[in-house]
Structure formats: C-alpha cells, structure tokens
Amino acid sequence: MRGQWLGSYRGTTEGAVTIEVDDLGDHYEGMAYVFPSDRSYPPIAGAVRSVDKSDNFTLRIMTDVIDLQHGVLVPWSAARQYYPNVTLDPAIDTTWSCDETNNVLAVDFTSASGGSGKAHLRRSDASRPPDRKPIAKIDGWSAFKEYALALEPNRYVFRGQESCEWRLRTFFHRSGRANLYKFVNQDISQLHAHLSSLTRHHFNLRDELENGAFYSLAQHHGYPTPLLDWTYSPFIAAYFAFRKRRADGECARIFVFDQREWVRDIPRSPLVTGTLPHFSLLSPLAINNPRMVPQQALSTIANVDDIEEFIAFNERDHRKTYLEVIDLPFSERPRIIQELGLMGITAGSIFPGLDGACEQLREKNFNF
Q1: Which strand (E) or helix (H) includes residue 122?
Q2: CA-to-CA distance for 288 and 199, rounded, in angstroms?
Q3: What is the C-alpha end-to-end distance of the chain, expressed in Å?
Q4: Judging by DSSP bridges, how do beta strands 116-124 and 104-111 pair with one another?
Q5: Full-prediction pTM beyond 0.85?
Q6: Using one digit for the tens of pLDDT, what is the confidence trace for 165-179?
Q7: What residue spans define the domains of the chain?
Q8: What 3-state class would DSSP assign to 154?
Q9: What is residue 348's predicted lDDT score, i.e. its pLDDT?
Q10: Tens digits of per-residue pLDDT, 90-107?
Q11: In sequence order, what are the beta bridge partners of 66?
Q12: Which residues contact 161 (CB under 8 A, 6 or more apart)?
C-alpha cells in the first residue's frame, strides 16, 4: 500500500482524495486529504496508521480542517465559524481494500453525523518506464543545437537526465517515501535546526521565497525534496544529461517544458501539503547557494509522484503540448562535452569552488 494514491469520492458530498502512505516495516503510516467540490464544505485531513500490513482493514481517522491558504491543519473548533451550515464531525470510520496487483485502492467511510461515501483511488507511480515519445527529427547533437537555437526565447525551461528510461520524478519520491506532511513537519524542522548554524542567513520558512530557497539549498546539498531542478539554458541541461559517462548504447534525455503556457493555464501553488495535486514553477532566491546563478537555475515543486502523467492529464484537458522530450545517444558524449566546454559550460563554471574545478580536470585527464 506504500505510495501516493489519487482519486475521487462520491456520497453525501463528492470531490477529490489524496492519500500518502509510507511503509514503516510492520505497518503503514501516512495522511489522507479530502477536497469537496462544493466549497461550502470544508477540506479535511487526518493521519492514517494501520495495525499491520494487511491489504484490508478498518480504521477510525480523526480529522482536522485544512487551511488552504497555508496548507496547515486547524482544529474543527477553530474552523466552525467558516462553515456555519455544516455539521462538523471530526471522527471518520473507514474500511480499506487495496488491490496491489492493479494499483487500486477503495475506501468506504461513514461519520456519526450521517455522512457516508466511497473513494476510488489509483496509485501514482513514476517508477515505471516513460511512455512519452521523443521528438523523432532530433536524432543527434547537431539537430539538437539547431532546434534549441530556434526556440522562442524565455518560453521554455529545460532539464537533462542521464537516462531516457527515467520518468520525471522528484528526489523525495525516488527515495520511496510518500508522506509529504511528515516531510514538511519533521524533516524540514530538523534540517532548519541543523543548517541554521551552518549558513550565514537565517531562513524564514513562513516566507514563500525563503522557504523555496531553503528547499533548494537542501536539495543542492543532497537532501531529498519535492523539487526538480531546471535551467533556462538548453545547453546547461545537455551538460547535466551527459555529465556522467555511460555505455554508448544508452541514451540521455532532455526535457523541454513550455513554462509560459503552463503558467497561463494551470493553477500554481507553493505548498506540498494541504493542497490539490499540482506541479508548479518556483524561482527561489539564491541564498547561500552560489550554484544557482551560473546554472541559470529554477525549480519546480510538486506534490505528485508521477509528474509526467499529471502533465499528460492537463495536456488532454487543455488540448496542448506542455512537455516534449529529446533523446540523444551517449556515443556522441565526447563531442558534446567538448563543444559545451567551448561554450564555457564545464563543471568548473557551473559548480563554483574546489569540487567543480577538480571535476573539470578529472574529465580532461581521466577516462572514467
């Protein structure tokens, strides 16, 4: 049952449901979020903790109301004034049935006030191979350069990944975890306490820009976060795609994302908990993070595991293409790295400091 589950429910009301579950060895823990379509009803969330790892079980969930502006939970007593015509009942009795083979979860629920319904969810799983086809006409480095230089300036952002077999997925979700509520309320608190003594700047996590900068700082120093790194430069993206050596028979992938149209069409959120599924652009401040400027970096923040499926859903809904992919063979790596070096794109330039300088010379003097 581990992972993120997305779906909808019908009953006394109807709406969207997100359930995030971590495997803690002998049981499951996570959070369930309910977002009624009728805004006169409050969005609610509650902690999930199973007794064991059975696929079928019953559970009473004690819920709180979601403050959608800040993504935090508030007690029913504090939210009562905003929902005067709703009978507020924090205790929800649930019956769970999980089909691991088909990645399907069903949850029946009732409350003492008479509310009831059933939720149907599917696992959001980005561990499977990608199904987005690369642009066929771009089959090599020369064609890529021609394509990149012809793109409309400032419309697109780019990301390079060293394998064309990997879907877009945040480091957090690649780690096998799903419970973002625990990440925000436990991991980030621990990181903030530990890193504050090591940085010149004290990050105000209640400020959207500084919170994003803190997430980005943690990510750039190896801590899993729900961010993905992007760049405004297609050639810097190509460097990251080919930074490491791989077998000549393999291919790297460069993602081309139409940020202009996405921002116009899709609601944005800086939150990762207490909000509907989203994939949003984030331009964090480069606080204590000297790599961001030379990398022409920006980030996306996502509370969905399978980002590509989320983008595909919105492409079907809006009849647009937001994301394209380009696959280039690793057999061209020597030429690509050489030409990027002539452009000034090297480890030394995009990783300022001793590590970048040594990596640049290692690439030059060693064949591994």
Answers
A1: strand 116-124
A2: 7
A3: 40
A4: antiparallel
A5: yes
A6: 999 999 999 999 999
A7: 3-124, 141-363
A8: coil
A9: 77
A10: 999 999 999 999 999 999
A11: 73
A12: 240, 241, 252, 253, 254, 255
Tokens representing residue 315 in the block: 């492409």
248: pLDDT confidence band, cut at 50, 70 and 90?
Answer: confident
Structure-token match 């205790």, residue found: 91
- Looking at residue 358, its pLDDT comes to 78
What CATH number has the domain spanning 3-124? 2.40.128.120
- The owner of tokens 């790297």 is 252
Residues 225 and 171: beta-carbon distance below 8 Å = yes
Q: How far apart are CA 329 and CA 250, in angstroms?
A: 6
State mean pLDDT over 123-136.
94
Q: Tokens 């419970």: give the residue.
A: 179
31: pLDDT confidence band, cut at 50, 70 and 90?
A: very high
Count, residues in the chain: 368
Pairing of β 227-231 and β 251-258:
unpaired
Residues 217, 288: contact at Cβ < 8 Å?
yes
Number of C-beta neighbours around residue 90 at 10 A: 16
CA–CA dist 332, 142 (Å, integer): 10
- Angstrom distance (rounded) from CA 292 to CA 368: 27
